[in-house]
Structures are given as structure tokens and as C-alpha cells.
Write a structure and sequence with these properties.
With 226 residues, the chain is α/β, with parallel strands linked by helices. Helices cover 27% and strands 19% of the residues. It is built from six helices and ten strands; from the N terminus they run H-E-H-E-H-E-E-H-E-H-E-E-E-H-E-E. It has a seven-stranded mixed beta sheet, with helices on both faces.
């Protein structure tokens, strides 16, 4: 799946708000960056020669490398419940050099906990100055209530039905094809309670905090990972 490009998919303002320290001389890793939508919407503010994009969708990586030939586009053929169901379940993470900043949008929302932890530990090994990753939560605050309702209504409109997960009280839940249950299906979404998620991280000595893009009034939260 190659994500479309239109104003509704422009995440560069969020990146610019949450990683204001980024400069043209910095190395940037766009994790789950599809065909390079972030660099596309930056209109030249992101240095193509210092930009790396990793994604499990081969067609997206090929398209990005063709469009941004001076960037580094890497296909990680890892199994993913949503985007790469034919991938290899034990495929090792790519071997790359250190990166100053790591960004990921709408990636952890389609990953099981075990894979998230593995990826974060790998990211930390790249010695970044900051890691910012979005995720979905059911913390029952105004932000998450809006988000859960949005995704619920979107699935009703798109597929005609969906289990009503808006008031789910579990620490985490996975939706597969709009129903609670297994992790093998076309429409996979992962939702975590922030407090519980951070507790799981702490078992691996991962420190993180929940943040929001306040200036852009964005309801979906991010994890700032130390």
C-alpha cells in the first residue's frame, strides 16, 4: 500500500513542531515512511542526502527511491499484520549508521507490542538525539475519545460494521478486520493504554512520555522516547 498524498496526509507540520531541533545537516530516519511523504511535503526543508526511509511495503520503497534518488530507501521485508502479511517473521532489522532524529507516523498503531519493543531498542542503538513516534491510545481523555470515535465512525462508513471499541477498558486491544481477536487480517489496528504501555517499556529500560502537537491541534498523541 502506497499512502496517498494530499493536504490531509501532510505530516510535515507535526514533524516541524515536535522536532524543531532538526537542521538541514542532520541525519533523519523516517520509520515506516512509505514512499517518502514526509520529505515530499517538506518542500526541500529536509536534506534528501541525509534522509533514510524504512518501510515494509516494497512498492512504496521503490517509488520513493525513484522520486528521491539521493535518499536512502530501505525495504525491510518483515511480516506485518497490516502492511506485509507475506513478509518474513524473523527478518532482522536493517543495519544502518547512526541517525540524529527518528520519526514515525501511524506505524505503532499497526504493530503488536513485541515488535514495538524490538524496534525501539533498535532505534536507541542508532544513538539518536530524539525519537518521536505516533500511536493510538484509549486513555479516555478528550484526545483519545475523539480519536477512538473518529476511527470507529470511519470503519462504519467504510465497511458497514465494526465492533464498538470506543469505551474499551483493556490495557491494550487489537482489531483485526474490525473485530477483536487474532492478529492475522487485512485491517489491523493496535490500541494501547499509555500507562500500561510505558510499564511494559520499563521492563526493557525504555523511558518514554506521551506528548501532543499542540500548535497543530492534533488529537493523535506521540511518544517521545529517550
Amino acid at each position: 500500500m502506497i499512502h496517498p498524498r494530499n493536504e490531509s496526509t501532510n505530516r510535515y507540520p507535526l514533524f516541524n513542531e515536535l522536532i524543531p531541533e532538526y537542521t538541514f545537516d542532520n541525519n533523519l530516519l523516517d520509520y515506516g515512511g512509505s514512499s517518502g511523504n514526509l520529505i515530499y511535503f517538506s518542500n526541500g526543508a529536509i536534506n534528501e542526502s541525509k534522509y533514510t526511509c524504512i518501510d515494509v511495503v516494497k512498492d512504496a520503497i521503490n517509488a520513493g527511491q525513484s522520486e528521491f534518488p539521493n535518499g536512502n530507501f530501505i525495504h525491510w521485508n518483515r511480516y506485518n499484520e497490516m502492511y506485509n502479511t507475506n513478509g518474513i517473521k524473523n527478518e532482522s532489522l536493517p543495519s544502518i549508521s547512526n541517525h540524529d532524529y527518528i520519526w514515525g507516523y501511524s506505524v505503532f498503531s499497526h504493530m503488536i507490542l513485541e515488535d514495538i519493543i524490538e524496534v525501539i531498542l533498535w532505534m536507541k542503538s542508532l544513538n539518536p538525539k530524539k525519537i518521536i513516534m505516533s500511536y493510538l491510545n484509549n486513555d479516555h481523555d478528550d484526545y483519545s475519545n475523539w480519536t477512538m470515535n473518529y476511527f470507529y465512525q470511519k470503519r462504519i462508513e467504510s465497511f458497514g460494521e465494526c465492533v464498538d471499541f470506543r469505551n474499551n477498558e483493556e490495557d491494550y486491544f487489537y482489531l483485526t478486520d474490525n473485530k477483536y481477536g487474532n492478529k492475522n487480517g487485512e485491517f489491523f489496528i493496535a490500541v494501547y493504554k499509555t500507562e500500561w504501555l510505558l510499564e511494559q517499556f520499563s521492563k526493557y529500560k525504555i523511558k518514554a512520555k506521551k506528548i501532543h502537537a499542540v500548535e497543530n491541534n492534533w488529537p493523535i498523541p506521540f511518544l517521545e522516547i529517550e
